[in-house]
Amino acid sequence: MTRLPRWADLVLVPLISLLLAGIISALVILAIGESPSEALKTMVVGAVGSPYAWGYTLYYATSFMFTGLAVTVAFHASLFNIGGEGQAQLGGLGVALVCLALPWPHWTLALMAAMIGAALFGAAWAAVPAYLQAKRGSHIVITTIMFNYIGAALIIYLLVNVLRPAGQMDPATARFPEGAALPQFHDIPFIRNLYLRYDGSGVARLNAAGEPIYQQVPANVTLFIAVLACWLVWLLLWRTRTGYEIRAFGKSQQAAIYAGISPVRITMIAMLISGALAGLMSINNVMGESGRLLQNSAEGAGFIGIAVALMGRNHPVGVFLAAILFGFLYQGGAELGLLTGIPIELRTVVQGLVILFTGALDHMVRMILGLFFRPRRTVVT
Fold first, then answer.
1. So what's the pLDDT on residue 379?
2. How many other C-beta atoms can be found within 10 angstroms of the C-beta atom of residue 168?
3. What pLDDT score does 167 carry?
4. For the purposes of burial, counting CB atoms within 10 Å of the CB of 254, is it exposed (0-12), middle (13-18) or buried (19 or more)?
5. How many Cβ atoms sit within 10 Å of the Cβ of residue 215?
6. What is the three-class DSSP state of 62?
7. In angstroms, rounded to a whole number, what is the distance separating the alpha carbons of residues 59 and 81?
8. How far, in whole angstroms, is CA 324 from its chain's centroid?
């Protein structure tokens, strides 16, 4: 197969895969008797058509950035970590324990402590599969799948029997103290005016105290931490010795061992970093949005992170862009289910098609493009 230019591999292949997924999605919408153009318009308006829509799209994208980065780091070490869902849920447990431990005086202190708790619990949950892979040869895919279900069962047990306040019916922790509440977009000074509520004449609405009323959105300061994490992962993988060892080990284990790189050490380091990144996702939804730990706090973001990493070519910049795309699909799909006759489950179909074409059928797209990028023959005179 012809080797594609780097720009085609990084840009053209994902775009064509996305286009193919869109075409098949349009055919599915036609098959159920709906209009693809109306569906697309509804998704675009619902996901990016207003600051309110962007607030939800970026909220989902924030979670997907963390889980996409988690898959990316492990993948560069040739480890397919699909346990991000469980690691994110255990990260949420770490956030809850930290936030409930003290009456935090300010959210900045609570945030720093919660980040440590989330990263430690997520890394700890990834450490066992990593050890089994490194020392016992247990396949990382099998063990991380198992730990997803073990983690979910453990969280339910703790919420029902240990962390649920007396007299509360729903399985959830108590609400976090006010000092642990993260600023959401409508609370941030240089953003909040975008979320003012207006009446029909374009005048800002006021409450009984004469204060402006703002639209509530779940996007919060965790987005900035996610963007910082993208930069730090790039720095780790391409500008540090450890990152070089991770990539070398992922390219060829035998060559890495010959060069003196310990497979046990690299497996543990890559999986611990991966688990910590997945755990940090819980800052966004547990601390930033819910204000308490609920069942299924990860909301499937651990699995979507796999698609985000595939779509983003396992590069932090690609993960950032792919996370926004999947945030668009998630929020736009929700609006599609609310405002049209198209079922909300269609967003799962679209996500599945994107995964199909960017993952399983990626080789097919490369083969087709290879026909247009044949190497030029060199004429020797």
1. 54
2. 10
3. 87
4. exposed
5. 15
6. helix
7. 23
8. 9
